[in-house]
Amino acid sequence: MKIVENRKRFFAISLVLILVGFVAMFYQGSKGNGILNWDVEFTGGTSMEIDMGEAYDHNKLNEVIFTVTGQKSPQIQDIIGTNEVGLKMQSIDSKMRTDLENAIKAAFPSADVKSTSDVSGTVSSEMQQAAIKATLIACVAMLIYISIRFRDIRAGGSAIIALLHDILIVIATYAIFRIPVNNSFIAVILTILGYSINATIVIFDRVRENHDRFSSHQNAEKINKSISQTLARSINTSVTTFFTVGAIYVIGVQSIKEFALPMMVGIIVGAYSSICISGSVWYTLLPKKEK
Amino acid sequence: MKTKGRLMLLLMLVVALGLSALTYYGIGKDKQFSVNDIQQGLDLSGGVDIVYEADKESVSDEEMSAAISLLQGRLDWNGWAEAEAAQEGTNRIRVQIPGVDDAEKAIQEIGQTAQLLFVDEAGNVLLTGDMIKNATKQVGSTTKNGPSSPYVSLEFNEEGAQRFAQATAENIGKKIMIVMDKTVVSAPTVQTAITDGKAIITGNFTGQEAENTAALIRAGSLPFNLNVIQMKNVGARLGADALSSGVMAGFVGIALVLLYMLFMYRLLGFAADWALIIYIALDLLVLSLFRITLTLPGIAGIVLSIGMAVDANVIIFERIKEELILGKTLRSAVKIGFSRALPAIVDGNVTTLIAAVVLFFLGSGTIKGFATTLMIGIILSMFTALFVTRFIVNSMIKAGLHNPKNYGFRVK
């Protein structure tokens, strides 16, 4: 396994993926859609999931919404492969929601409202804060844990770089596929954090175990050897986890698909980064005389 | 030796079958401890979840409990027996109504301000709820030398006191009905004119009834409005779809994992699968035992933890293989494999556990369900990998399955 020798290629692949995510964000942002597809949980507003029952006319739906609510630009997102549609608009009260539901049913007889959700500004700003807090606390807790486990700043540093890499690619997935960013987003990010650190630690543990078998200028061989020794474990665990999450994605309902898709990407990226990135970064950080 | 090993395997088989049967059938008529006994969140059963907030800065605990009884009273009155109203934080109430058909209508009905009226026998309104300053449960004797019993004590504000004095003077010997949202709360008979702005309602109250009546009356004079700050309604059909597809995904995921492990690790994989089935049964048992509400993300957490559960086994088995390749005997390879794999297993689980714990304490709503099932899953899977799998593997060796080839050892 020549992982370390090929590190520049791996870094390039990752950078391209992350850049694609940023391009997608800026493109959507410039179109005025928001860099990410924020859900009502974070912005406040009313959302509805409607099964239209058949193909329908977008403009007509837009018109119905305008007539009832007076809102000119509700977000209407078709759910690919179904007749379902997700609506997002500024918050409307219970009475207006009833009117809207009735108006939609009158205009589209086969329509059926599957779920409704309304979040006020108070709650959405609280959720934003809770989300930021949760992410920060989790990161700090894991940092503390990493520094206890690797008393080597370079190892800890490269594990964290690999983590950032995973999170950026998962966020890129959200940007590219316009997956709604809500509470599930936080759950996905934190789970991937834990999952990916786990994979990196198993490899770095091996590097430490192999410390006496290689001389100090054989670091590349040492890291490569450790990665290949743990490769079966890295692959197998990713495969089984990918199986179960994949099953959720294929079989599950829309809201859980939105949870499973980025999770699948996270599992692949986590495996990739622990195998191809974290060890290579560690090697890059080593002083010249140890390479 | 062989017999002992076989007996141990038989024991594990009984454990696995017993646990599976328990989660499937449960105990008794109520199917206690079975999967059917697990509480479902509204995103699975369908229903509406509403959060109300008092539009006042500082709300006392008494005012809050009055508001909760008011909402609970309305829920009961509408016939939603399963509905619950519970306080959240200092000034919020979360109302959950499972299986409601018309969520918006429910919101509008529950959300009206309470109407408390004092009405005479002819149906004329004498006073309204906003004239009441306070209502409390008291215990004492209400008549001379009478027995001590619970009653409700009312206190009126100035206008209320005047009106009440006039009303009682005009209705001596007749009933005055206290009506809350069209329901008669109590109908005391007026004994004398009451002029000091205080009144008591006696009846054959139990302590709890007196408390509830007082709370209802206080709610009728709530000094604040309840605003809906969040609502989520999931149609019953979507909930049912979410549940059945989640369960289906679980089965498919489990089957794939079981087959993969069997394929990769032969006999060891078989041991891991055996332990995995015990793990899944234990996981579901814990859910119903601790009355944990299962949400859709919760199902995702369970399914995800099944995928991760084999990780510990994989780490162990890879170690065993390495030891076999180094020429160790099977027995010592298993022993060393388990002990060498321990640090990596603990490490790996700790990081995921950190994420789950943080989510549990800071996540909101259904995400808490994801964190809960993930936490339970991580802890249980560590237990089953380190103890159950080990027990099964050792029993297999004792029972006479010695060929290293069956343990994934490939002679290169």
Describe the structure.
The complex is a heterodimer of chains A (291) and B (412). Chain A has 291 residues and is of the alpha+beta class. Chain A folds into 2 domains: 4-33 and 123-285, Multidrug efflux transporter AcrB transmembrane fold (Up-down Bundle), CATH 1.20.1640; 45-119, Alpha-Beta Plaits, CATH 3.30.70.3400. Chain A contains 10 helices and 4 strands, in the order H-H-E-H-E-E-H-E-H-H-H-H-H-H. A 4-stranded antiparallel beta sheet of chain A has the order 2-3-1-4. In chain A, strand 2 (75-78) and strand 3 (84-89) form a beta hairpin. In chain A, helix 6 (153-177) packs antiparallel against helix 7 (183-209). The longest helix of chain A has 32 residues, at 254-285. The two termini of chain A are 17 Å apart. The model of chain A has no long low-confidence stretch (mean pLDDT 90). In chain B, the strands form 3 sheets. A 4-stranded antiparallel beta sheet of chain B has the order 2-3-1-11. With 412 residues, chain B is of the alpha+beta class. Chain B folds into 3 domains: 1-40 and 235-406, Up-down Bundle (Multidrug efflux transporter AcrB transmembrane fold); 47-113 and 224-233, Alpha-Beta Plaits; 116-219, 2-Layer Sandwich (Gyrase A, domain 2). Chain B has helices spanning 2-25, 42-45, 61-77, 103-110, 158-170, 207-220, 236-289, 296-325, 330-362, 366-398, and strands at 47-54, 84-88, 92-98, 116-120, 125-128, 132-141, 148-156, 176-180, 183-186, 198-201, 226-234. Chain B contains 10 helices and 11 strands. The longest helix of chain B is centred in the middle third of the chain and has 54 residues, at 236-289. In chain B, 56% of the residues lie in helices and 17% in strands. At the A-B interface, helix 4, strand 4, helix 5, helix 7 and helix 9 of A face helix 4, strand 11, helix 7, helix 8 and helix 9 of B.
